[in-house]
Amino acid sequence: MNNSSHLTLSQLNGIIQSKLNEAFFMQHFWIVADITEHGFKEKSGYHYFEFVEKDVRTNLIVAKIKGAAWGNASQRIKDFEASSGRKFTNNIQVLAKVSINFHKVFGLALDFLEIDPSFI
């Protein structure tokens, strides 16, 4: 095979990253989803989890994507817990503001930006 006819994985992921960043630059979306696979690293203030949507009739997963919150977003989760009296943890449904992020190593994820504490 000719070396000019293929890409390395990091090159392909770089192309994907560039195209997604171009397509979704400075765009934010409010989504409704359940939180699953939640973990929290207290030392760094880093939350990692999955956003999941389930079919209301069958309860089967119809969409899933990784999510992460750190820095200001992690503080917004603390504020959410204080104002709503609800714990940010597995199996809660949230209305969250997110942005799209693709990392060459970690793949596609949604960066958590805000949460609506009045959403139930």
Walkthrough of the structure:
The protein is α+β, with helices and mostly antiparallel strands and 120 residues long. The chain contains two helices and five strands. The termini are far apart. The model has no long low-confidence stretch (mean pLDDT 94).
Structure at a glance:
The protein has 120 residues and is an alpha+beta fold. The protein has helices at 9-24, 72-84, and strands at 29-41, 46-54, 61-69, 93-103, 107-115.
Keywords:
5 strands, five-stranded mixed barrel, alpha+beta
List the SSEs and their pairings.
Blueprint: H1 9-24, E1 29-41, E2 46-54, E3 61-69, H2 72-84, E4 93-103, E5 107-115
Parallel strand pairs: 3-5
Antiparallel strand pairs: 1-2, 1-4, 2-3, 4-5
User: Based on CA inertia axes, which overall geometry fits?
Assistant: globular
SSE succession = HEEEHEE
| Beta-strand content | 35-45%
- Assembly type of the chains comes to single chain
Structural class: alpha+beta
Alpha-carbon Rg, integer:
17 Å
Number of helices: 2
